[in-house]
Amino acid sequence: MSGTSPPRVLVLRALGLGDLLAGVPALRGIRRAFPGHRVVLALPAALTEAALATGAVDAVLPAEAPGRGVPPLTGWPDGPPDVGIDLHGNGPQSRDALAALAPRRLLAYAGSGPSPARPPVWRPDEHERDRWCGFLAAHGIDADPDDVRLPVPATASPAPGAVVVHPGAESAARRWPADRFAALVRRLRGAGHRVVVTGGPKEDELVREVARRAGLPAGDELRGGLPFAELSALVAHAPLLVSGDTGLAHLAVAHATPSVTLYGPVSPRLWGPPPLERHVALWTPGPPGDPHGDRPDPQLLRIGVAEAAGAALTLLGPRGRGTLPASGFPRYPAETRSVATGPTRADVGNAVRRC
Asked: Which CATH superfamily is domain 163-350 in?
């Protein structure tokens, strides 16, 4: 590194879109704490556009490993980073990946030197946004867990004003059945709303199936995985997003777009939206499941079409109120909302991350 180059901070969070967006408050705290540094974020190359859109990082170091593992940081240029910050997990593997680059200062849950006076404690019952802001606070870095908003992109939305339904998720455990999504789409269209169905690059067949069952016109199937700017604009200009527990739910929070999110193996108290009226987190309490399982989680399957449609139509406002189910909305049982109270004991098994 030349004498004129700025000092560098390398942050490791090589996970998915939802993880990136949940980490935005921490990343912005780091940006403010190191104003003269070049902040580089290690994460999958496919998320480069999304990472830069946060305004919290200057560059991306492409890095990923299968199964949410810890990638080697072999692409780092010559010379140690001035600061290495592990936002990937509670170690020791993720700490060691950064330590291999010999940063002058290393911040990690798994321990680094010199340790802060009050080292951060990994709490499996803590919400993801709060966890990483608290971690930074232990190292004297202020971060606001509510600092989640993204600017509306200049890119035009491919379907402005349309309700967005996103049936996909990384694992089958977090995917509500396609026939239920199709039934939901039919109810929303019957109430007079335009609906588009979207999916990731590997979810074309799922998008086709939901659209076919719902009787959608071809133009309302958004297949192939939209570039991030278009996806962000789509959500930012939508009156509502309905999805499972996946990255788009976090994007709705980032754009203050009303959302209905269907949770199963992981409680919304650990990964859900802020407790605001515009966000509804549907979830039935129960024992924690495997968020990476190969079949829909039993708790996710306990959410019915009428419940999801009722929540969606309520958030959409007067146009949908005449079609609410006879059982009534918007009076949700307390356990189906994303609330500000701490997680239950059953939630804790979902939050262990050792990497």
From this structure: Glycogen Phosphorylase B; (3.40.50.2000)
Percent of the chain's residues with pLDDT above 70: 87
150 forms bridges with which residues in the sheet? none
Quote the CA–CA distance of 331 and 336 in Å, as a whole number. Answer: 10
Quick one: 8-138 is in which CATH superfamily? Glycogen Phosphorylase B; (3.40.50.2000)
User: 20 and 52 in contact (C-beta within 8 Å)?
Assistant: no
- Whether 52 and 281 have beta carbons less than 8 Å apart is answered as no
Per-residue 3-state assignment (H helix, E strand, C coil) for 180-211 = HHHHHHHHHHHCCCCEEEECCCCCHHHHHHHH
Contact 338, 249 (CB under 8 A): no
What contacts 24+ positions apart, CB below 8 Å, involve 297-304? 297/173, 297/174, 297/264, 297/265, 298/264, 299/263, 299/264, 299/265, 300/173, 300/174, 300/175, 300/176, 300/244, 300/262, 300/263, 300/264, 300/265, 301/176, 301/177, 301/264, 303/176, 303/262, 303/264, 304/180
Amino acid, res. 104: R
Residues 168-219 pLDDT 10s: 998 999 999 999 999 999 999 999 999 999 999 899 999 999 999 999 998 9
In the structure, what pLDDT confidence band is assigned to residue 111 with cuts at 50, 70 and 90? confident
Max mean pLDDT range (117-131, 291-305, 307-321): 291-305
As beta bridge partners, residue 244 has 262
Residue spans in the chain of domains classed CATH 3.40.50.2000: 8-138, 163-350
